[in-house]
Automatic annotation (TrEMBL):
InterPro entries, per the entry: Restrct_endonuc_typeI_TRD (IPR000055), Restrct_endonuc_typeI_TRD_sf (IPR044946), Type-I_RS_S_subunit (IPR052021)
Organism listed in the record: Pseudonocardia endophytica
Organism phylogeny: Bacteria, Bacillati, Actinomycetota, Actinomycetes, Pseudonocardiales
CDD domains: RMtype1_S_EcoJA65PI-TRD1-CR1_like
SUPFAM superfamilies hit by this protein: DNA methylase specificity domain
Family: Belongs to the type-I restriction system S methylase family.
Keywords linked to the UniProt accession: DNA-binding, Restriction system
Domain of life: Bacteria
Gene Ontology MF annotations: DNA binding
Type I restriction modification DNA specificity domain segment(s): 29-171
Protein name, as recorded: Type I restriction enzyme S subunit
Length: 388
């Protein structure tokens, strides 16, 4: 992993040689309290503060060791272990949940540690020391013993700059997607005032996937489950070589709706894949733009989630008849006027998502090569210049 570079134990690279996990019992959400970062807030090396839980100030004060200052490295240690993010200055004063460890680097940057933690060999190390008796858990002592490659400081800086350029572009794309989608939905919402209503089932066909994970071959196309809609493709993703009809395939730009479990609406932006059970492929009817159907489904989402929450089953869900309920839509003439702009916003968001996918692939290819010293930083810089 280190390409002949010296290594140091992680504990020797932390303030006071220590790391701590956060609040064990946060209690109820306190609107006037202190925001905390939970594992679900860590994604792609970033901290998503949307819907953040807030704890009473006295609870946060009892866990002063994990009160954030900005610049720390966060590491998930329970459940979805190994997720990382560097704390931005804007989160000063926040705290973290029990499932997250706070690392304050000394003599090395948090960005470097994050890259090391994302390397394949470090993930292998974590897997080897993982306690899975009840729930996947990383022990703090094992984390402190992890060996960190320590090339010269200028090399560490150069590597973090190269990978950071890709990360920064991905972050920009995340913002582009959010802005394009927010503008699109706000525009359609405004245009729907004083409009008409239509059943969801009249706007699109809702094609249910099937149990394509059964007897999966392990190769071929991704089988899209709810997990892939929520968290993307990962180690648990199922692949299958099976041939399926077009209605059960999803391609970049298609709309998917998980009608069970988390009830997620998502624009698919990855390569062609197979739609599994509990997910609708939403196919617009003639004359109904995809952006309009997406808006209509999202309009009903909160209501559908409430219906699912009332189900006395292990997994909440909606039923077909719920798709016959009316939703507000713009009048026909407004749809025609909006179509060019809304389609452009939809496609802009999709393009940003697709670009981020390629940037992430480039990043994942370069990181182990840079960490091992197999590829000089200057060569990696040329690759990055071509894609950002």
């Amino acid at each position: 992993m280190s390409g002949g570079w010296p290594t140091a134990s992680l504990g020797d690279l932390l303030e006071d040689g220590a790391l701590s996990y956060g609040i064990v019992q946060p209690g109820r959400d306190d609107p006037s309290g202190v925001p905390i970062v939970r594992v679900k807030d860590l994604s792609g090396g970033r901290i998503d503060g949307i819907g953040t839980l807030k704890v009473a100030r006295e609870i946060s004060e009892r866990h002063s060791r994990t009160r954030l200052r900005g610049g720390e490295l966060l590491l998930s240690v329970v459940g979805s272990v190994g997720e990382t993010a560097v704390v931005p200055p804007a989160l000063e004063g926040w705290n973290v949940a029990r499932a997250i460890a706070v690392l304050r680097p000394s003599g090395v940057s948090a960005q470097w540690l994050r890259l090391v933690f994302e390397s394949a060999k470090m993930r292998d190390y974590f897997s080897g020391v993982l306690n899975t008796t009840v729930q996947a858990t990383l022990n703090l002592a094992d984390i402190k013993r992890a060996k960190i490659p320590m090339p010269p400081a200028d090399v560490r800086t150069a590597i973090t700059d190269v990978i950071g350029a890709l990360d920064d572009k991905i972050t920009v794309n995340v913002r582009v997607v959010a802005a394009a989608d927010a503008l699109r939905l706000a525009s359609v919402t405004a245009a729907s005032v004083g409009g008409t209503v239509s059943p969801l089932s009249a706007l699109a066909r809702f094609v249910n996937g099937r149990a394509f994970t059964k007897n999966a071959t392990g190769t071929g196309r991704v089988v899209v489950r709810i997990a892939e809609l929520n968290s993307g493709v990962g180690g648990s993703t199922v692949y299958n070589d099976i041939e399926v009809v077009d209605d059960h395939l999803t391609r970049p730009g298609d709309l998917l709706f998980a009608w069970s479990g988390s009830l997620t609406v998502a624009r698919w932006y990855r390569e062609e894949a197979i739609v599994n059970q509990h997910i609708f492929k939403v196919v617009p009817e003639a004359g109904r733009p995809l952006w309009l159907v997406d808006y209509a489904v999202r309009t009903k989402l909160a209501e559908f989630k409430a219906v699912a929450a009332d189900k006395a089953t292990t997994m909440g869900h909606i039923q077909r008849h719920h798709l016959d309920e009316p939703v507000p839509v713009p009048p026909g003439e407004n749809v025609e006027v909006l179509d060019v702009a809304m389609t452009s916003l939809w496609n802009r968001a999709l393009a940003a998502e697709r670009e981020s996918l390629q940037l992430a692939r480039t990043r994942d290819e370069l990181l182990p090569l840079l960490m091992s010293g197999k590829v000089p930083v200057k060569d990696a810089e040329k690759v990055v210049e071509e894609v950002v």
